[in-house]
Amino acid sequence: MDEKKHVVVLGGGFGGLEFCKAFHSEDARVTVVDRTNHYLFQPLLYQVATAGLSAPEIAQPIRSVLSDRPDITVLMDEVQDINVAEKKVLLRENTLSYDYLVVAMGGRNSYFGHHEWEEFAPGLKTLDDAVRIRSRVLLAFEKAENSLEKEKHEELMTIVIIGGGPT
Ligand SMILES: Cc1cc2nc3c(=O)[nH]c(=O)nc-3n(C[C@H](O)[C@H](O)[C@H](O)COP(=O)(O)OP(=O)(O)OC[C@H]3O[C@@H](n4cnc5c(N)ncnc54)[C@H](O)[C@@H]3O)c2cc1C
Rounded to whole angstroms, how far apart are CA atoms 140 and 130? Predict the structure, then answer.
């Protein structure tokens, strides 16, 4: 029987990994769960979406980030539910018991109740999102190159960005 306390960290993004780097205890073992096996530097997602960088340039395996921490186990799995009363996390593949739980699973885009907008204005939070946007933009440019109608050409070359923040 393992006497060490089990600390389960949900999410291997900014928050989860900062916790892991700062937390050291000989009395605890740590398990990090993330649905991807890579840490993603989200601030550069827009560069992947606009073909300025390739996907591997802004992602790093979580195991490599934590390679100097033999006390930490990394699992690629998706969190489905948390049973706080029984201190269990239900994953797609497994169920994990914990003594302490760190929840750092990030955020989602808000469409202000208009979920139908998402199809036309996809969010930019994951590598898949960035690659999908890049492909849509580049294919529109290719179609514009092939288009002989001026109006169609202009339509394909027009990109509307909603939101004037850094991204
Ligand atoms: C395009 C963009 C640009 C940004 N630019 C900046 C910037 O310039 N400066 C700045 O300070 N911040 C910036 N941010 C914000 C910053 O990236 C976030 O605030 C930060 O990543 C949040 O950290 P987090 O740990 O809460 O979540 P995240 O870093 O998103 O990590 C969450 C992790 O949880 C995992 N996860 C989610 N759901 C599940 C599940 N059900 N099961 C298993 N794993 C799951 C995800 O795979 C992910 O690895 C930007 C964000 C975006 C999207």
Answer: 15
